[in-house]
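Tip: read the tokens left to right.
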């Protein structure tokens, strides 16, 4: 039986909190169900033995927050699995084998995470902040044909050992062919995803005849049929349910047909000169003869003559052309839809236009705002970022791609909240007014001995992980920062 613990727990305390309260509360904390909770990610100074940790506070208690960091604990263990009988793949042998595996312990949705690889003898060791709600994930690397291991709601509160038994799992096998009986593109494979967590297990390559074999522990999964990195084979999902009593599951995968087309073209600037080393990315919108939930993203680069060519499954694709990111770059990315409906398609020249100037004055009411750090991030493409600081008259001047941008404006004044603005085009903005109303986040940070911890970095984020503010604790461990206005609300909780 798997247990699911939402990652954000109520860890805000009143002024009367004691050291014992700070340690005991996480073990018995109420679980915050509302998306309105605020997450504080704490990064202790690097010269300490403390690790980054996450806490959650509520919008009605932001100005009186006590955070008590948990001590660092060591966790060691071994990963092992069971080999199949030499006469029947559904029967385990008596032999337990050490497994080289990628092992991860994390509290989902937080910065509390560690990943390592067990050695050839199966042994591993990680350091973690003490806490509850950890998830353990193990993905076999050698031998490969063992099941994905996921265990949730693990308390790790002291130095301890944690052994992982992958077992043998239930064999899931079948044929993966196109509906006309032809093999799928070379390099096609099958991967198994755990539906509850989204974790991915080992992949199994198709045989020349289209056969595959993966193993799974009981649970609900998605089998994804796709290709190796850069392959023309799209990703096609198939549901899979594995029961406790299933000795063997036959799952033939028929995604339809995968007709292919070769797309070629060139990338030039507005003067018609070829652009070398531009990324040409294709993202599937809808694909011929494949299910509507099939996905694909492949890319290539232009050569010295600005030329590119790529084999794709036939259908409608979003084409993005992105110039190389370098200090002297002068061009903007571009995007368009293309229809690949034949064996070959020449889309001709794709022209990249020059960048644009973002010239805007930052204001607080009627006064110019100086020393405001403005970060502009592309809303699509590679989400490259560009930054500048406003001058004494509040002006910023940024050379940016001529695309839609997300602007983040942050003041050195802790009482001034971060302001966010969406800009459809750099030419659309000439003035930006900073938010003049916000919510105060203030409190004190204590180390594992309940002593105030100075000079630790604290990032304030919403429940979806968007950054609301950044601050440092002072010499007495206290912190104070104003973030965008957060409305108080009535909390729904579950034990």
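Filled-in amino acids:
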């Amino acid at each position: 039986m798997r247990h699911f613990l939402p990652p954000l727990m109520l860890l805000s305390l009143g002024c009367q909190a004691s050291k014992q309260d700070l340690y005991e509360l996480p073990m018995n904390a109420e679980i915050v169900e509302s998306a309105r909770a605020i997450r504080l990610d704490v990064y202790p100074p690097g010269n300490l033995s403390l690790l980054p940790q996450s806490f959650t506070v509520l919008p009605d208690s932001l100005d009186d927050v006590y955070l008590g960091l948990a001590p660092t604990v060591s966790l060691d263990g071994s990963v092992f699995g069971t080999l199949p009988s030499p006469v029947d793949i559904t029967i385990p042998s008596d032999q337990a084998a050490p497994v080289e595996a990628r092992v991860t312990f994390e509290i989902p949705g937080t910065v509390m995470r560690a990943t390592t690889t067990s050695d050839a003898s199966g042994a591993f060791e990680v350091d973690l902040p003490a806490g509850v709600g950890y998830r353990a994930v193990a993905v076999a690397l050698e031998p490969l044909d063992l099941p994905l291991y996921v265990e949730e709601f693990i308390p790790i509160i002291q130095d301890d050992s944690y052994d992982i038994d992958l077992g043998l799992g239930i064999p899931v096998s079948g044929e993966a062919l196109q509906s006309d009986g032809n093999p799928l593109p070379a390099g096609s494979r099958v991967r198994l995803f755990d539906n509850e967590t989204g974790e991915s297990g080992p992949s199994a390559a198709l045989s020349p005849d289209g056969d595959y074999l993966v193993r799974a522990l009981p649970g609900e999964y998605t089998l994804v049929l796709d290709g190796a990195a850069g392959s023309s084979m799209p990703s096609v999902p198939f549901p899979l349910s594995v029961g406790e009593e299933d000795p063997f599951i036959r799952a033939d995968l028929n995604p339809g047909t995968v007709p292919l087309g070769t797309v070629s073209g060139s990338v030039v600037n507005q003067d018609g000169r070829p652009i070398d080393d531009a990324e040409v990315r294709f993202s599937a919108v809808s694909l011929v003869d494949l299910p509507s939930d099939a996905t694909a993203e492949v890319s290539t680069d232009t050569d010295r003559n600005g030329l590119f060519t790529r084999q794709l499954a036939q259908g409608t694709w979003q084409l993005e052309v992105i110039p190389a990111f370098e200090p002297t770059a002068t061009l903007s990315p571009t995007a368009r839809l293309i229809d690949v409906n034949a064996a070959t398609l020449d889309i001709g020249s794709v022209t990249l236009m020059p960048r644009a100037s973002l010239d805007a004055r930052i204001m607080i009411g009627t006064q110019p705002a100086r020393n405001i750090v403005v970060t502009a991030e592309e809303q699509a493409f590679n989400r490259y970022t560009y930054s500048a600081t406003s001058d004494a008259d509040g002006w910023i001047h940024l050379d940016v791609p001529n695309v839609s941008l997300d602007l983040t404006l942050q003041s050195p004044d802790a009482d001034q909240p971060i302001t966010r603005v969406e800009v459809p085009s750099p030419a659309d903005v000439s003035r930006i007014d900073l938010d003049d109303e916000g919510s105060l986040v203030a409190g004190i940070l204590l180390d594992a001995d309940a002593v105030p911890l100075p000079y630790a970095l604290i990032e304030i984020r919403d429940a979806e992980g968007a950054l609301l503010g950044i601050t440092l604790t002072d010499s007495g461990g206290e912190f104070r920062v104003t973030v965008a206005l957060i409305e108080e609300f009535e909390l729904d909780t579950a034990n």
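Confidence is low (pLDDT under 50) at residues 1-33, 488-495. The chain has five domains: 19-71+439-494, 73-167, 173-250, 260-352, 356-434.
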